[in-house]
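input
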Amino acid sequence: MYAQIDSNKRKTVLLIVIFIVFVVFLGWLYGQFTGSGYDGLAIAGIVSLAMAATSYFAGDKIALATAGAHAISEEDNRRVYHLVENLCITAGLPMPKIYLIDDEGINAFATGRDTKNSSIAITTGAINKLADTELEGVIAHELSHIKNYDIRLMMVVLVLVGIIALLSDWMLRGFFWKKRGNEKNQLATILLIVGVILAILSPLIAKIIQLAVSRKREFLADADGALLTRYPDGLANALQKIEQENVAPLQHANNATAHLYIANPFGQSKTFLSNLFSTHPPIEERIAKLRTMTK
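output
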């Protein structure tokens, strides 16, 4: 567990550094092609630093607002509050802020930058449709994301994937707008081709990284959550209900935040192509792994 925590901290720093370097490189490339000198480099540097800071300090607020979540207190729902509180005591974690998502789908996610600044959001569907042992399994899964610092890693991935897509679109448009007047410049043509390729591939590469990171984290959180409750069947049964009942997507389902949820917020798909590009591993595989823990 401690190895995973250290690994996630290192990956967070590495992702931010790679992001800043990549964006600065695009800014330099844009400046070389358009003849604007270091203006593009300076703008790209400022943008990358600002967005990296935003992802670290405000990524959780962005995720919660996107999900349509609102904070609740102990008086609002004592059952949920006490389940979270008891598991936090067991895990040795500070009490996270608890948010409610008004949606009949069964789902939940955790977000934040560290154990002292974390939040858990749970749908009304999960609260109403899951038994205590099942809901406890879901909450333990999310607390494992918090304890393992998955929340920081995935929050950074959330913002960076989105901004890379936006910057790539901006760069692509900029290259074509500035193409006139540079048509006879061989270097400009080469830079244009490189820039267009990067602009097209960057969102795809970012998405692949997001999928790979998200899927691995889900399997680990399932295992750690089961160890926390000492009852793997609780989470397995919850996932089984999710597989059966989550047919329609959540009202506020969003591609940028999909990887945060315990299950795909767009509903469970059985097609090979959908599973290939899903932010989550197949739910039946997760259930099978949890069932083996009881043997």
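quick obs: The two ends are 22 Å apart (CA to CA).
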